[in-house]
Amino acid sequence: MPDPAVPPTPPVPLTDLLAREDLALRRIAGPAARDTVVHWVHTSEMADPYPYLLGGELLLTAGVHIPEAAGSGTYFDDYVSRIVAAGGAALGFGVAPVHDTVPRALVAACDAHGLPLLEVPPQTTFSGVARAVWELMARARLAELRRVTEAQQSLASAASRPDPVPSVLRRLAQRLGGRAVLYGPEGAEIAGAGREPGGAAREALARLAEVVQPDRPAPPGGRTPPSGSTSRHHSAGARPGEPGAARSHAAQGPGPEADRSDPTPATGPSPWSRPGPDPAAGNSPASRPGPTPTTDPCPTSGPASATDTGPAPTSRPGPTTGHSPTNRPGPTPTTDPCPTSRPASATDTGPAPTSRPGPTPATGPSPPTRPPASATGTRPSATSRPASATDTVAGVHLAVYALGSGPGFVLGVATPHRAPGDHTIASVAAVLLALLTGDQRSGTGAARSAALVRLLLGAPPEEAASLLGGERWLVVHARPDADGAPDPVAASALGAALGSALVDPAGDVVRVLVPADREPAPLPGWTLGVSAAVAPADWPAADTQAARALARARATRAPLLRHSDRPALADLVPPGEAAAHARALLAPVTAHPALTETLRAWLSLHGSWDRTAVALSVHRNTVRQRIARCAALLETDLDDPDVRMELWFALRQV
To answer: Where do the DSSP E strands lie in 32-140?
Structure first.
């Protein structure tokens, strides 16, 4: 059965239509309707409705076309086989006024071909069935929009957390009911959330991520999808029928069969266009000629409920050979593939032409094609690689999304089922992750590279700083409120929030160099210490200021503290004399850095044992022991405020 064309509206499960009490439809033949979906409704009284179907229809008929002797021949078997070959979803037979009951031969034919057959009672009109399908589509569309909107808000909220990347992945996995993974430029898994898929699906997802990653050659001979899997590549991550979805996809040329669980066309033309003929295939019974895709796709936005009230118009040539279900010549292609001119509801009462010209090439150019990466043995270049790709392995639906055009981060998603709106939700997460992992620049890349080279070659900081922009700078020390050292992605997100890409994740503290005109503000989940604004020559001193400000902020549980650069009494003493006095006074303890830092923190916190212990991440008894040791080495009384003031003055000079 060919894949049905896909309108830009959510499909309607046949079970929902059967559940409508006002319609009183009843399934009397064919398989259970659990997995059957209806994309549109079409009414036809043609003996061969094949040329008028796009696939996915609930075809309605009152049996006007049935001859009197149909029950004794192969009429019904041929009729049903043509509907199945066209991709029809189900057949509805209206009881009265032509037939009092559904013909038994039709019931048997539907059972034989696996086509659901519905009995339409006399009180239910065909237009009422079409209206019910439209209402169910509108309801599904509204539910999809609401789901996507709620997911967008949830993902945006997750992106503002202190750990934005893991939070976005967790929220995405929850919304899709599967697994979300972030792959790094080298292809390694950086972070993940959600239920782990099976081993085969996990490995297939990692291989699929390589398809959209640039500049990494594939193994010799290429990689092919695992047995039983299907894959597709897209140049733009959007699926017809989803909110905000872009309907243009990259043409892929020969490759694996498209995944039917996702109705996106695999080759890029309008979803309303049928596959074109193979020029080398001719009109053999196994071939199915159709129109060449045109370059003007314009699908309509509503469900199609069409009925043809007469012979096929001359602008829609019919089949060239009989009614064989295995040979289905398509309509002659035109430059406008949109079937928007078809009436919304009509009835086919005239015979279809018995001879029609074969298909001719469309006047518009066909979409360009290229072999898939798995067929060429080489990775697509950064300019030609697809933006997204999908696959299905062991019943698990896989999708990957390239995060911008930067260093090669990839979002991977594995879900046990695929629901309308999933692609849009994943695309929103991909945009947020692209912003979080992107290279935030405070200048051009060339300027940053030049500044680094000059520093490495011995240039003074002020010369390198001139390339980065700004004459005065702030040094910010940040520490996450949660336990553990921040990962590089979280550090990059912190730099983006502060407005600078000059980030150094040094251990459990992240240092950021920020232009002075960008005033840091408190950030949720982080404790910040900010230096005074200084010239590049004073960056080392500013680094010390920021470290002290961070220690005080953590001790006082303040989200942000700044170093004050206002004039003080210490400014009255010449710097050289002040430094000499400080070295002489602190000589007994300067050989023990732990004692010096403990004394500094203890004095800055007014002698508080508990807050000093918190600031230094040690036990309070350790603080008491160190302060007692300082008092012994300095041979002074640390309870004397004059002594404390003199020591604080000295500590600020070293």
So the answer is: 37-38, 40-43, 57-61, 90-94, 117-120
The string of pLDDT tens digits covering residues 460-502 is 877 777 777 667 889 999 988 877 777 777 787 788 778 787 8
- Which of 452, 483, 488, 456 minimizes the C-alpha distance to 467? 452
CB 210 within 8 A of CB 379: yes
d(CA 43, CA 575): 95
Q: How many residues does the chain have?
A: 654
| Intervals of the chain under pLDDT 70 | 1-8, 214-384, 405-407, 438-448, 469-470, 565-572
Give the CA angle between residues 74, 80, 82 to the nearest 5°: 100
At 105, which amino acid appears? A
Instruction: Mention every residue, 6+ apart, whose C-beta is less than 8 A from residue 333.
Output: 276, 290, 291, 292, 294, 359, 360, 361, 362
What torsion do the CA atoms of 82, 83, 86, 88 make, to the nearest 10 degrees? -170
Q: How many CB atoms lie within 10 A of CB 542?
A: 24
- Residues 212, 278: Cα–Cα separation, whole Å: 29
91's CB contacts (< 8 A; 6+ apart) are 58, 59, 61, 80, 83, 110, 115, 116, 117, 118
Q: What is the pLDDT of residue 521?
A: 87
Closest CA to 45 of 337, 319, 306: 306
Residue 82: CB atoms within 10 A of its CB come to 23
Which pLDDT does position 163 carry in this prediction?
Answer: 77
Per-residue pLDDT tens over the stretch 185-207: 777 888 889 988 888 888 899 88
Query: For 477, phi and psi rounded to 5 degrees?
Result: -105, 130
Sign of the four-CA dihedral 459, 461, 463, 466: positive
DSSP code string of 379-441: PPPTTTS-SEEEEEETTEEEEEEE-TTSS--EEEEEESS--TTHHHHHHHHHHHHHHHHS---
Structure tokens at 383: 């300019």
